[in-house]
Amino acid sequence: MKNLLITTFFVFIINFVSIAQVGINTTNPDGSAALHIESSDQGILIPRMSTAEKQAITNPATNLMVFDTDEGNYEYNSGTPEDPEWTRTLDEAYSGARGAMNITSTDYDNGPQTTFSTKGVATRKKITGTTTASDLANFTASGNNRLVYTGTQTRYFRASATISFFANANNTILAFYIAKGNSGDATATVLQDTKSYVISSGTGDIVTVPVNGSVELFEGDFIEVWVERNADSGGGSSAYISVATMNLLVN
Q1: Residues 15, 16, 17, 22: is their CA dihedral positive or negative?
Q2: 70-100 pLDDT, tens digit each
């Protein structure tokens, strides 16, 4: 009888280990789950800790997850125990942060004018005109030709603009830019790697130019579309461009 009890006990232990599944609030855990929890009014609370406490974890397992209270985000170790790399699971890069802004004139040749009194880099200025913003997520419109990033996670965005215009002087050479500033800046600064040159040969020409670039934005940073007059024939101190359409998309 004693031997039978011992044998039965070991058979029970072996069977328990072989089906090592845990069910909470369920007697029939899913066969694919090591842990199956059911509840209609409670959730799972992941361990919460500061960034310093997270970084102090010794040899964190790959895929170990915590909630970083400093970052306000769930993070997991996408690296190795010896070389951990904490990665956000709810990064705004995947949450649809985006914004759109446009100018649309009723007449192609009578749009808002951006004027120039000289030539060269000193002429760089924000394109003027009344803009309409739409499809905003983690962005707000602040006045005309300005989108402000309101997200809390610093990240890179793709900024794409298309401008259609005509110039009042022949052989007008212009450079268009994406410009960036932050909440403490009086004005934006053009991003040189977004520069896009275009030439308008005649005063009756409607010219379209694309401007694209990657821009890193912190919370409170803003972007605008700028233009610079480089050369023309006869524009003098009263040169201008008339913007028929301008569309800016950030995502």
Answers
A1: positive
A2: 877 888 998 999 999 888 776 554 456 889 9
- Which letter does DSSP use for residue 131 in this model? -
Question: pLDDT tens across 141-173, in order?
Answer: 999 999 999 988 888 899 999 999 989 889 999
Residue count (the chain): 251
Q: How far apart are CA 155 and CA 141, in angstroms?
A: 19
Strand partners, 246: 103, 163
Cα separation, 137 vs 56, in Å, equals 35
Q: Is 171 left (phi over 0), alpha (psi -120 to 50) or beta?
A: left
- What tokens appear for 8 in the block? 């039965």
Q: Residues with Cβ < 8 Å from 132, sequence gap 6 or more?
A: 101, 102, 103, 104
Assess contact for 228 and 80: CB atoms under 8 A. Answer: no
Q: Are strands 73-77 and 86-88 parallel, antiparallel or unpaired?
A: antiparallel
